[in-house]
Amino acid sequence: MADDASCQVFRINKQLSSFSQDGRFLALANQTNLFIKNTGTFDDYLTFVFPDIIEDIAWSPDSEYILCYSTKKAIIQIFSVCYPEWKFKLTEGSAGLDSVLWAPDCKHIITVADLKVELCIWSLIDHSVIHIEDLKSSTNKGFEFSPNGKHLAVIVSDNGQDTVEIYKTKDWKLSRKLICEGLACIDALCWSPNSEIICIWCAISGLAKMIIYSTVTESYEAIFQPDDNKRTLGSKESLTSCNHFDEKLRGLELVKWMPSGQLLAISGHNETIVLLNCLTWNPTLQLRLEPIVKGGNYLSRVFKECILKESKDSNRATEKTPPSNDKHIMEEVGSRPVNIPIVKTVTYIGGDSSTLAIHTIDIMEFSACGQYLSIRHRIYPGALWVWDVRTNAVDIIILQNNISAIKWNPINPRLLIFTESTHMYEWNPDEISCSSTPRGMTVLDARWHPTSSIVALCGYNRAVIYRFDGQK
């Protein structure tokens, strides 16, 4: 890994750093200033000034524009790296501003109003606007673009009935409307990597069910439901479930596609993940996050963070002796059983003692090659499972502190893990290592460069450009 002396440090607002998709630039937001750095030398390429404190930034897919916005003031401003004198400014009205993102064509931006009361599509060419109303407000993300950028799917709730509306991004006209009568409600949706399938599901316990819809045949391919949902389907409807597994999947939480589209990972309420084969839509593999790794489980490796105390010479120790630098290492645990630490404290949302946080799987991410799936459950906040879906082997990583973020390398099966500490952890199929963060910075998250040679490590108010040895 790189020497601290070679690491460049920049001031930022709350982890606001982002590489452009073509890898030419790094954008950094500090207070009201937006700095565009050349990724060759990380010298200033352009500097823009925003009217207020920047709360978020986003590059356009073609890497030629970058937007900044403030939800408090409902201000959006777009800058161009090709024509620095050009800018587009938008101030939302009484509806307020929840979030902003780019449309795939780079000619439109999407704004979501406070409480998700409406979605607006703004043209950067003629400043026209298209409104989509009645968004379902209870969903975390009630809309998604297809990966090929040709369609936008939106969850709409009107008079108590949930539907999915699909718009063509060419002209933003409604293409089709999916009623989804088999679902009690619609809580989320996601597109397949080839943009031909939409998964639409209800997550209510006891009523959880997912519909797989094909935009090619314009028909339902299959219906999947966990085993805690009674079968109420007609004889003409296809159904897949997990009855051949000992531990049944209960409920639906997260749904993630393998990058190739061959498998679909689904997590349930009972610390269980199943993989669906996307040809037969039948479960092929299942993983349960057990609190104890028992003997006889030869497909699991357990790695645990250990602290080696620095020995002191008692004869030389004085009050002026600096504190010892304890060494953190990762060791493979060969003995069984192994207990995985469980969170013992009650967690509240936003510090509000009246609102309990639900312990669910909050990290489930495939590697770029699709062979590995990383998983974290909030009930085991310091543990990460890395599942090899080809061999069904699992690496279990147990750390001293709670995991705050993970980041897969965009090209190689290489994973960085962070714990809001001055240590970072790197996993690959052969080993896992622990190292000190550059300049002792507490790292919360990271941003990989598209070439995977460098990474921007993000702290509370700083970003460090970090190069790996042999990749300079």
TrEMBL record:
Q: Which UniProt keywords apply?
A: Initiation factor, Protein biosynthesis, Repeat, WD repeat
User: Which parts of the sequence belong to the Translation initiation factor beta propellor-like domain?
Assistant: 32-156
Q: Name one Pfam family in it.
A: eIF2A
Task: List the GO molecular function terms.
Answer: translation initiation factor activity
Q: Does the keyword Protein biosynthesis apply?
A: yes
* Gene Ontology, cellular component aspect: microtubule organizing center; MWP complex
**What superkingdom does the record give?**
Eukaryota
Q: Does the keyword tRNA processing apply?
A: no
Put simply, this protein is called Translation initiation factor beta propellor-like domain-containing protein
